[in-house]
Design goal:
single chain, Alpha-Beta Plaits, 34% strand, alpha+beta, 5 helices, 221 residues, 6-stranded antiparallel beta sheet, two-stranded antiparallel sheet, 8 strands
Length: 221
């Protein structure tokens, strides 16, 4: 186990799209590990480290909602996305034309605690030390510094976040004392060594959290 962190992440809407749904975007019920990794990498990532998501706590009740989304051209999208990317609201609007109408199944009012750590990779140099990268992440997370604005599955759904310090308690999950739920097959990540082959695992929500296996480590053995 490497240097560990806890990051509280939330947003008004999220869409962690299922790869097997082609006609419309349909979100998973929870944040998949690849999306959590993306949030961490938006704050700090270098070739010398590999982020590993250990656990995802689901704080708020899972609420799915159907909404109309607009498919915009490149120039038009750049203008329309200014407000959502400033964290004011997601890109949701009434139907304008039949050609642009897209129905999606979104998550509403989401909040998660990401438990993760990183390991050094074979690309680490002589000046790449675990403590160095750990402190860089802590400093950047505290100051809200990012390479790009983190998002919840899609860039039109910006994420807010705060670093949970060692002595700071996380919010209590709505599912803390609920019976465990089997959420089925959840996308873990893409295997880039095998032509971006999707990798899945069976997700179980137990005591408000999902324990995440490290499938990349398993396949490398």
């Amino acid at each position: 186990m490497g240097y560990g962190i806890r990051l509280l992440v939330w947003g008004s809407y999220a869409c962690f799209a299922r790869p097997d749904k082609q006609d419309e975007k349909e979100s998973y019920e929870v944040m998949p590990p690849c999306a959590a990794r993306g949030v961490l990498e938006s704050i700090h990532w270098k070739p010398a480290i590999r982020w590993i998501v250990d656990r995802i706590e689901v704080i708020n009740e899972i609420r799915l909602e159907r909404a109309e989304r607009l498919e915009l051209g490149t120039a038009e999208a750049a203008t329309q996305l200014k407000e959502p990317m400033s964290c004011k609201r997601p890109l949701l609007a009434p139907v304008l034309t039949e050609e642009r109408e897209k129905t999606s199944l979104l998550l509403r009012d989401v909040k998660y605690v990401i438990h993760a750590h990183f390991e050094m990779t074979a690309r680490a140099g002589e000046h790449d030390h675990p403590e160095k990268h750990y402190n860089i992440f802590l400093r950047r997370a505290r100051k809200k510094q990012c390479f790009y604005h983190p998002y919840l599955g899609s860039r039109e759904f910006p994420a807010s976040y705060v670093l949970l310090e060692d002595d700071e308690e996380a919010p209590i999950s709505y599912y803390r004392r609920k019976p465990e739920q089997h959420l089925g097959s959840l996308l873990w990540d893409l295997d880039f060594k095998q032509h971006m082959k999707p990798m899945y695992f069976q997700a179980v929500l137990r005591n408000g959290a999902i324990n995440i296996p490290d499938l990349l480590q398993r396949t490398s053995k």
